[in-house]
């Protein structure tokens, strides 16, 4: 039930912090992961030479975040593929391939068919799923449930942050299995993960009103662009998908580095662009490059809304508007930056008088290929 909320989507965005906390609960103890559900695959973890993540839509963007974490913490190469593309070529798979499917519903036919295909080809399969007892988990060697609670709105929000959290847990587990993470070296990452719910709570509380105003002003916008880099890139894609499905507005997400290879030609006066800005504090940060992207597009008349860390002064002089997120480690910023984009999609749809929970032409789970 909506419990007094104007929409399920608004309620579910407010539950994002809880979805992360519930997905983590009991699974991190003394610098190590404790995930009994993964036991069936444990002997395989030390031996796999590749991970393939299969998913569609928002779950695919969570999968992209999983790639950054698994490659960084476990040093295993990861491919992230749209299930419907993977299934219809001749993918190379072996018993040393771990196929990780990500699906909120566990019923997405494209992903189910891809998992069956991978299984038949001898790959090991792990399902990350939110709905207990769904079909995809039943077809998999092991299941890692997200505990986001029931998600009713067609647009996926709290499931996304829970999926990313589950993938980060898997990345920690794989890092341990390979001897790359010790309780000491994992602890700072675990501290980051466990502090996310509180930080995300403050992002939602502090930014939602401002985002709603910005959405009101943007109700007549024909097109919105989203830029991000590294872990901010999937967030840009997610922000764009939400606007398409909820507000029926043309929206594109780009890797910010790609701008000069084509998309900058789209920039004209008044174009609204969201930019997910990485923290300047991290070693090797892409912050200066993203700030210079902002300057390039502002110089061409675009209106820039930056999502940036508290205290990042450089964005203030370059962007039109800055939405602040608390300080977090590089891998964890996207889980804070995504909520304002969820709110923006929802508020823009509401400003246009559209049904936020049931966008046209879409179903909550896509059970046909
Ligand atoms: O149930 P699933 O996670 O497998 O669904 C995948 C996509 O259909 C889903 O994420 C879709 O893209 C959402 N409507 C996006 O908000």
Automatic annotation (TrEMBL):
Q: Name one GO biological process term.
A: carbohydrate metabolic process
| Enzyme nomenclature, EC number | 2.6.1.16
Domain annotation SIS: ranges: 41-180, 214-359
Cellular compartments annotated: Cytoplasm
Q: Give me the reactions it catalyses.
A: D-fructose 6-phosphate + L-glutamine = D-glucosamine 6-phosphate + L-glutamate
Taken from the UniProt entry, a GO cellular component term is: cytosol
Q: Which residues does UniProt mark as catalytic?
A: 364
Q: What class of enzyme is it?
A: transferase
Q: What is its main location?
A: cytoplasm
**GO MF terms, alphabetically ordered:** carbohydrate derivative binding; glutamine-fructose-6-phosphate transaminase (isomerizing) activity
Q: Which domain of life is it from?
A: Bacteria
Q: What does this protein do?
A: Catalyzes the first step in hexosamine metabolism, converting fructose-6P into glucosamine-6P using glutamine as a nitrogen source.
What is the name listed in the Swiss-Prot or TrEMBL entry for this protein?
Glutamine--fructose-6-phosphate aminotransferase [isomerizing]
Which residues of the entire protein appear here: the answer is 248 to 616 of 616
